[in-house]
Amino acid sequence: MQCAAFFRVEGVLVPRVAMSGAPVYLALNAQRIAERVLRLGNVMAAVPWLAQGPLHDTTTATRIVFMGLRGMSEDRLVELGRQYAETQLVPRLRPGCVELLREAARHGRRPVLLSDGIDVVVGPLADHLGVGDVLCNALEMQDGLATGRLREPVVSAALAVERVRQWADRHGVELSASAAYVARLDDQLLAAAVGEPCVVCPDRALRRLARDLDWPVLEA
């Protein structure tokens, strides 16, 4: 059996705000002004769901956010995603957490990035880190254009642990021998599912839970 190290992108490898800005960046870089306004409106429509906080099912919000990219060409999304990763994510990588990722690989754990974001943004970040395994969302494409829908299964706060379990089963990875680095209370089920959970720069609720469960806490 193999073992892995799952790294939540949002809050662990980069600050949460860095990843949350990606849909807005993509929407604002639509080719025509009218398109930009419409797409940005779709993105902002997700705010009420996202504002509900930890432990709420944010799957609906995740879907709505990316509906604003409907009709954008795949080529343009790939290019914009690469630009965003290079200019907004890579410079904000937390060196201590990157070293944790490198250390996990040196000790035989397969690094896996986990994110609610989409592949055109997360993929270039993974390439920069030299990570080949990514669990994130992907836009459905038809005739080279985004339909505005996400491919199933969707990665969201509520469903992330299920995607991890499915991936582990498919790749022969033993979760009880694996590690997970998380930063938000939504990922407590993922932390509980692995043998070595680690909390990184947590919010107050996750910090309190980590203290109660004796999970290690890192301040990157």
Question: Can you walk through the features of this model?
Answer:
The chain has 220 residues and is α/β, with parallel strands linked by helices. It has a single domain (4-218), classed as HAD superfamily/HAD-like (Rossmann fold, 3-Layer(aba) Sandwich), CATH 3.40.50.1000. The protein has helices at residues 16-20, 22-28, 33-44, 47-50, 59-67, 74-89, 95-106, 119-129, 160-171, 188-193, 204-213, and strands at residues 4-8, 110-118, 133-137, 139-142, 145-150, 179-182, 196-200, 217-218. A 6-stranded parallel sheet has the order 3-2-1-6-7-8. A two-stranded antiparallel ribbon has the order 4-5. Helix 10 links the parallel strand 6 and strand 7 (196-200).
Give the overall shape: globular
- Proportion in helices: 40-55%
Determine the structural class based on helices, strands and strand pairing.
Answer: alpha/beta
Number of structural domains: 1
Spans where pLDDT lies below 50 across 5 or more residues:
45-56
Fraction of residues in β-strands: 15-25%
Describe the biggest sheet?
Answer: 6 strands, parallel
Cα separation of the termini: 30 Å
- Tell me how many strands there are: 8
The CATH topology name reads Rossmann fold
Mean pLDDT score, rounded?
Answer: 86
CATH class: Alpha Beta
Q: Give the CATH architecture.
A: 3-Layer(aba) Sandwich
Number of helices: 11
CATH homologous superfamily - what is it?
HAD superfamily/HAD-like
